[in-house]
Cobaltochelatase CobS (Halomonas cerina), 326 residues
Amino acid sequence: MTEPLNAQPDRMVSARELFGIDSDLMVPTFSERDDYVPDIDEAYRFNPDVTLAILAGFTRNRRVMVQGLHGTGKSTHIEQVAARLNWPCMRVNLDGHISRLDLVGKDAIVVRDGVQVTEFQEGIVPWSLQRPVALIFDEYDAGRPDVMFVIQRILERDGHFTLLDQNRVIHPHPHFRLFATANTVGLGNLTGLYQGTQVLNHAQMDRWNIVAKLDYLPRDEEAAIVLGRVPSKDTDKGRRLIASMVAVANLTRQGFAAGDLSTLMSPRTVITWAENCEIFRNPALAFRLSFLNKCDEAERPLVAEYYQRCFGEELDESWMREATSS
C-alpha cells in the first residue's frame, strides 16, 4: 500500500458542482487518488445539511461530529465525501479493545540486519497527524476514558501532539482533518439501544466545532438505495415490494419514537431484508429472519401488525401459505 499523497490539494471545486448543494463553498480536492481514498459508491444518497457540515470540516479544518441512530450511514457519509474529494481517509472504531497504546504507539521488537532491536512504532494518531489524512473515529461515544483523553489535545485546530516516550512534539499536517461518528451526543445510553456508550467529558464535547445530526432518509430515497444494493428488484413488482418494506421500516421508527417499540428497523436492515428475499424467495419469511426475531416477544404482535398494514396480509398466514406452496 502506498503512502498517502504528501502534496497539498491542487484543485478547488464548488460544492454545488460536486454534490448539487445550494452553496458557493469552494472545496479543496486532490487530482489523484491513492490507496487510502475510499471507493466511490454511486448508490449513496447525500444529506445536504450533513454534507455541507462535512465539507466545512475539509475546507476550513473544523472538527466535525456526525450523530444519528444506527444504520443512517454516518461513517459512510464522511467516507463518500472524502471519496469524491480524493482525500485519503482512515477509519478507527473506538471499541473497548482500542487502548491508549494503539492510538499513541508503543515499543516493538523488530529485526534490523539480522539483529533484534527495540523500536518505537507510531500509533494511528501520530501517523495520521503527519499526513493529509481524514481520520474518522467511529463509535466515538463508546471509547474508554483513558483513550478519549488522548484525543482531546488534537481536537484543537492547531493542537500539537506530544510523544512523551520520544520527547517529540508532532505538529499536525496542514491538511490533516478529524471527524467522528456517534449514536448519542455524549449523554450516555438514554434510550437503552446503545449499551456500552459513555457519558463524555463536556470539555471534550465542547471542542467539536460542528455537530451534525443525520436522520433516516425520505422513503423514496431510501427505496432507491435498497434498489441500488439489490438491483434484481428494479422491476415494477420489485419496486412495489421495496416500497412496502420501507413503509414497514418507517412504522417501526414511528413506534420507537412513540415508545411502543424498543427497537427499530434501520436502512441497513431493510437492505438485509431485501437481500434475504433473494435467498428465501419469500418476503414474510425473510422479514422474520431479518428483523422480527430480533424484537422483544411482547412487541412482535405490533410489528406483525405493521407488516399487515403495508403488505395487506397477515404475517403468519402469508408465511405459512408461501412455505407450504413451495
